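Subject: histidine kinase structure
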Amino acid sequence: MSGLRTASLYRRVTVTALTVLVVVLVIVGFVVNAVFRAQAEKDVNALLAARVQLAQQLAKQNPSPPNLLRRVETRGVRGQLAMPDGAVYGALQPPSSTRLRQVKATLSGGAKVNGAKLTLTADDSIVAGAERTLKQLLLITGLIAVLVTAVALLLGVRFALSPLDAMTRLARSIVSGRRGGRLAPVRTSTELGRTAAAFDAALDALEGAERAARASEERTRRFVADAAHELRTPITGVQAAAEAAVQLPPDADPEQRERLQLLVVRESRRAGQLVNDLLELARLDAGAEIGRAPVELLALAEAQAERARLLAPEVTVTVGGADGRVLGDADRLTQILANLVDNALQAMSGHGKLTISVAPDGFVVTDSGPGVPEADRERIFDRLVRLDEARDRRAGGSGLGLAIARGFARAHGGDLRCAAAPGGGAAFVLTGLTPA
């Protein structure tokens, strides 16, 4: 890709305008000279015709040939009179002149000049002199016009293009770290106005992207710190239990050894779940691919209800609503519903009532747990959210379950929100799925 030509805009505009002016002046000079020349030739021809007409009138008065020539000749016009008897009066101008005009006529009138042949020649050297003077005047006037125009252009173009200097100053201030400056054009219907508006829009987008990047960087930094903190707990548990198991004497109590082994398994599973959730979020951030096939929501709800009964036998689980079929990814929709069910079971601590209601474009999971305050109903979907101790489990297992559920809901074109249940507790509502 070739680089942008960066010659001085002032110079380019000035040179272009002067070039156009010179071309116009040259064309005008040629036109004026041609018109002047044509008019001069017309005037010379008219002068010769007038002198011939005068000679015809004088011939009727029967003057002598020399007298007739004296009265016919004038400045720039010479004549010759050839008599019928062969006598010749007057002398013509040298025929070598390329600017010579000649006209002939036979006179009729008095006996002295009757039948004489009159030849008149006109030397338009006077006209040629005037033409040279005109050319000189056009040249001098053109040069003066070019000089005056050049000075005027240097000043006028600098004034006309001053908005570009303002753009340059603003761009340099942005580069130096100062933000918020804008050109704010008064009119956006002109070329410079449209350019300034586009420049301001580019700055808005740039600063918006910069703010978004900084916010994203801050969220990423915070998320990494929280994830490291979350991973530290199970890893520390695994390490402590493993070290305690290694230090047990050969004759240690088998029950104590089994407790330590179970602790290692539980904490390692907890760490593995957190890692899996982090991978799911990474897939969502990268743009997880969502399949599009008919999915029976009622069948998914029944399956999750059965799983909940096995996990928490003392929780009353009911499924209601009409059967709904949507277009989506069955595995991801199952994951959404499973995360919501797990969240509800954790909130109720294994006791209470869980209801899964199926709708044509989603479902609602309601529990009888402590509920979620209105101020926290959006925060609860943040990654690794920290609420008060009684409600930390609302974020789901590793603290990422609800964030993952909302991510996959929005990837399907729907949304997931938290509301208050009619009889107390919380209701998680998934809506906006595409009916099949």
